[in-house]
């Protein structure tokens, strides 16, 4: 695992290895546990984090997805992901001028936001403001993934904590309230009401 995931390894071989890891992880149950154990033993999360910066778009996308799926529900891997700067990289990529890179990042955040183990990392790394900006992105696929992430975070109750961590996100939330409709507008209104009721925000 260490040898094939090295950043300098041939892109084709790295992609095949990542696809195999994802296939095994998606089998769930004991297969997922074994793959997560192998990833921990090989200390592969930092290598996957490095691959998230690959010049090869396919490798970058697979690495982001692998990081998300293999660390979900695994406290140690989640800690390593945070310590190795993986969530910071995702946060910085959310507002990339390259729509493809932004989509990869927001898709990974959307997947991670469904796992309670990842929510705290998303909160700590100030992902909310860029995520809110993506709700009005020119690309429909980017907007759709941002909506999934925002909905998951709202359901988890993390929005208030994220706003306390990153007050600048409030103006994006207000803009969302003005420009959106339906579920997104309702969730924005609930988040604003929660902040207004929190004495720490006054």
Automatic annotation (TrEMBL):
Highest taxon of source: Eukaryota
Name this protein carries in UniProt: Vacuolar protein 8
Protein's membrane topology: Lipid-anchor
Signal sequence, renumbered to the chain: none
Keyword terms, alphabetized: Lipoprotein, Membrane, Repeat, Vacuole
GO BP of this protein: nucleus-vacuole junction assembly
GO molecular function: protein-membrane adaptor activity
Family per similarity comment: Belongs to the beta-catenin family.
Repeat (ARM) residue spans along the chain: 43-85
Localization terms from the record: Vacuole membrane
An example Gene Ontology CC term for this record: vacuolar membrane
SMART domains to which the protein is assigned, alphabetical: ARM (SM00185)
Major site of localization recorded for this protein: membrane
């Amino acid at each position: 695992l260490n040898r094939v995931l090295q950043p300098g390894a041939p892109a084709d071989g790295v992609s095949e290895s990542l696809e195999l890891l994802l296939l095994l992880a998606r089998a769930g149950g004991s297969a997922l546990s074994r793959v997560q154990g192998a990833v921990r033993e090989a200390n592969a999360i930092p290598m996957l984090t490095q691959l998230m910066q690959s010049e090869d778009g396919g490798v970058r996308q697979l690495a982001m997805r692998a990081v998300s799926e293999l660390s979900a529900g695994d406290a140690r891997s989640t800690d390593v992901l945070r310590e190795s700067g993986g969530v910071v990289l995702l946060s910085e990529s959310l507002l990339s001028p390259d729509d493809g890179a932004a989509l990869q990042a927001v898709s990974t955040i959307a997947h991670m936001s469904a796992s309670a183990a990842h929510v705290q990392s998303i909160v700590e790394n100030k992902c909310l403001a860029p995520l809110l900006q993506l709700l009005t992105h020119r690309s429909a696929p980017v907007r759709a993934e941002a909506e999934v992430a925002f909905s998951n975070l709202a359901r988890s109750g993390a929005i208030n904590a994220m706003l306390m961590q990153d007050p600048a996100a409030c103006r994006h939330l207000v803009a969302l309230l003005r420009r959106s409709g339906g579920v997104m507008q309702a969730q924005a209104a609930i988040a604003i009401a929660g902040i207004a009721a929190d004495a720490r925000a006054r």
